[in-house]
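Case 380 in the screening queue. Each case pairs one protein sequence with one candidate compound; here the compound is magnesium ion. For every case the pipeline is the same: read the inputs, emit a complex structure as tokens, and attach any notable structural observations.

Predict complex for case 380.
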Amino acid sequence: MFVSDALGLSRHAEKRLEEKNILRDAFIPHSFFSDLIEVLRFDKKFGEIEEGTVIAKTVKGVRVVRGFPKIRRALTLYPTLKQHFEKEVAVEEKMNGYNVRIARFGKNLYAMTRRGYICPYTTERCREKVGLDFFKDNPDLVLCCEAVGEESPFVPKKVYGISELEFFVFDIREMRTNAPLPIREKMSLCEEYGLKAAPILEIADVRRAHEIIVEIVKRLGKEGREGVVIKDPAMKIDPLKYTTSEANAGDLSYAFRYFNEYGKDFMFSRIIREGFQSFEFNEDEKEFRERCFRLGFSILKSLRESIKDVYEGKEVREKIRLRFRDFEVLNLFIEHLRKTGVTFEVVDVRKEGEYAILHVERIMRSTTDKIKSHLGGSPW
Ligand code: ATP
Ligand code: MG
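Case 380 output:
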């Protein structure tokens, strides 16, 4: 099997991999993906191999792109940072979009989402926005990016002032080993090739980092941004993330709008974060009340909205707008959505200049049904 050859698995490991049924198809064959012969993704972690790892049999041989590792969260800045890092930390902005790994296979770029799917929409966008220059000189590197903007199939956001979709590099990693480049090298490569990068907000002495980050996070929060990822400049120590209260509230608002599609853990963990931040930020009564209001408002406003939608005979839906250069890629993306198990309706497709604009709505079936049954008088 090409997967075990590519990863150097023993016969025993290969057998276990098969038994566990972890490998899944990662793409839909199409001329848009002309460099790909067969591509598999790891649907779960397997030993060292991260979930979302992609093994691609391409016209130019077999390539491995490792899954993007989980980033753990600091619940307290002090003493967590001091204990976790050495000497200095780089504080990067945590951009709020979706995780994309971009690699070159054969002649073209391919964009992989977190779980290892090759996404037609994201691939078309990255071929246009990122381009091949970087990969001509660095064929074995992967750009780990946050795809951000209003035209996002997963996390549409207005706060960045990006009406379409842009890619912000946050890590550059070695394809096969997943080893990240040090921050300095990452930034100089981004500069050299004109790639957008997640901004570095501060390089701080680890003994003072918590104080500085409190101020940064308060400011980012007011601007509606998500938070920070704190990194070892050499990238030898795993990074940690930390988010603003406004981002936590934003997540809760989303989760409660679609409350039956979301895991209870998702909601619970965001409330716990608020407790720790409120304590650590030493806020006065006014700030504390604002936090309480933000938390409660984000939850109830969404819930009430969803209930009202169903009461008025509508389904609870999420609206998404995306642009495509090529009509065939638009169709391929619709097939991709179906394959990844999303329930949706295509509401409109229209031509706008050189683009085909797709309007789809994700249908939140489970939330809709739950609300309907209670409005109809069923007890919980
Ligand atoms: P995980 O924590 O497993 O990575 P998650 O979906 O729970 O996944 P988030 O809470 O969104 O993740 O935080 C991690 C994600 O943040 C990364 O996977 C990446 O997509 C995104 N991110 C945005 N900006 C950065 C950055 N500067 N450095 C690293 N990751 C970033
Ligand atoms: Mg995210």
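Case 380 observations:
- The longest strand covers residues 166-174.
- The chain has a mean pLDDT of 97.
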